[in-house]
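With this grant's support, we have settled on a layout for protein records. A representative record follows, to show the layout.
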Amino acid sequence: MINVTKTFLPDQEKYLQYVREIWDRGYLTNNGPLLQELESKLKEYLNVDHLYFCGNGTIVLQIAIKALEITGDVITTPFSYCATSNAILWEKCTPVFVDIDRSTFNINPDLIEESITPDTTAILATHVYGNPCDVEKIEAIAKKHNLKVIYDAAHAFGVKYKNRSLLSYGDISTCSFHATKVFHTIEGGALISNHPELHEKLSLLRAFGHRGDESYYFAGINGKNSEFHAAMGLCNLPHVGEIIASRKDIFDAYDSRLNWDILERPERSADIEYNYAYYPVVFPSEGVMKKVMEDLAENEIIPRRYFYPSLNTLPFMPKAIACPVSENIAERVLCLPLYMGLPIEDVERIAAIINKSLLSP
């Protein structure tokens, strides 16, 4: 069976050596030496000032909202994983969905201002599939209206925009290090900010809001991660370059074999060094997409409807907001298998099945 993704696993002995060191120290969590080492190496790799390794890619969104003291309405994208909007709801804010750009699938910056009201305090946008949002336009809008900006950069590890880590944009960017990501720590996430005034606050918020046994500052949460997860990150980080290179080869193989007279895909921004996190294709209709899924499943190939449904259509959203572009793309998009080690022969087979399915009645 070929799944949409397959977790990269490093040399087992290297990881077990870290495990033996953890065992010998008896120091399993609470900002241990491996976690501190991983944070240091990630900051160097990404060239960012402040980075906090946390438990997962959702808790970091919640901490970011709390750190920036965001309340009321948060303008956000309907085309993302549900963690983006769920974090807004969990922090007692209201998601205000703005439709996406038809070309990039990111939030359409030209539609943001018309959704701003006196209750709006922030913009939370997703770099969809690792493709940068229009960060310049969003920053200009935020400054004009005194709004905070958070980027859900779950897909964007290793991406550079204009020779700068994409994770360095906004007031805070968050990243996911889930096992399915380009870089992973099994479970994990990170908060990234270049604002020195947030350094202490972010550090405290992920550790219950206190330091030591007696110094309590505010109501934080348990956003910490363990030495075992940090060890996996230390094993995987040196391989990121070869992982991205392998994914690019697979990406290029799909590019050269799929029928682009019928299929569509999002446009990538200019001035980008990409990480090839996902391979999305858009079909002429939902019916055609489902037929292709059936044909692939018959050959034990499992793609993913990523993202579906459009988040503005979820039944528990407090405001009903139409987002026709997002709703349309969400019905027709499919992410194809993409991971290091996927044989090019399998890419050829997947593309052939799709192309045949597209042309059959």
Remarks:
- Residues 122 and 147 are 5 Å apart (CA to CA).
- The longest strand covers residues 120-126.
